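Lab manual, section 2.4: Encoding a predicted structure.

Procedure: take the sequence of the chain (206 residues), apply the prediction step described in section 2.3, and record the output as C-alpha cells. A sample record is shown.
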Amino acid sequence: MIEKINEAQKPHEKSTFVAFEPISATIMAELSKRKDFKNKQNLLQEVIRDERYKLHEFGDHTESKTYIFPGSKLTSNRARTLEIAKDLNKRNISVHFLPESDILKSADAIVGYKGKLIIADLKYSNTLKTGTLKGDLIDGFEKSQMVVLKLRHADTGIFSKTIDELARKRKITGDLMLINRLGKEKVLKKDRLIDGKYVNDVRGFL
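Recorded output:
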C-alpha cells in the first residue's frame, strides 16, 4: 500500500499548487501529516485552486459551483453523479471532482459545506435491498471523510436497517450527508449514526 501511495504522489509534470497528483488517497495521506484543522483546510484549499480545474455548467444560477479535474471519476453513472453535484450546488454546497487513480481507491470530490472542505464519495442509490446499500456505504466510508448518499426509493426502514447493521459491524468511519427525493440534504454525524440517535434526524425526511 505504501508503495502505491508513493507512486501516486509523484509530481504531475504540469504546474500545480501541490507537489502531488491530487487523488483522494494522496490527499488523505498528506492530511494525516497535518495536526490542526487550519493546516488541513489550507491543503484542501490549495488543491481546489489548481488551475487545471474546469467549471461545469448546469445552466442554473447558483452561488456554489461544480468543477471537474482532468481524469475525474465520472466515467460510470456520469449523469447520476452530476445530478448529485447539481443538488448540492442548489443547497449552496460546492463540488470539486478529483482525478481517479488506476492503482488506489479514489473518492469522488472535495465538497464545501458550511465553510468546511471535506473529501467525499458520492453515491446514487436506486436499490431497495439493504445488502446493496450496505456495500455502497462501506465502499464510500473506506475512501473518504464523508459519504454523500442520494436515495431515490429506499425508505426510513430500509435505511435504518442498513445503518444499524453497519454500526454493529463497526463499518461507519465518517459522517453521512443524506439527500432525499426533493434534493434536500441532511448531515448525519458519525457518532449519531453509531449510537442510533440519527433516527430522530431522518424521521419525515425520506
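Check your result against the sample. Helices lie at 2-8, 24-31, 37-48, 78-90, 130-142, 156-168, 190-195, 198-202.
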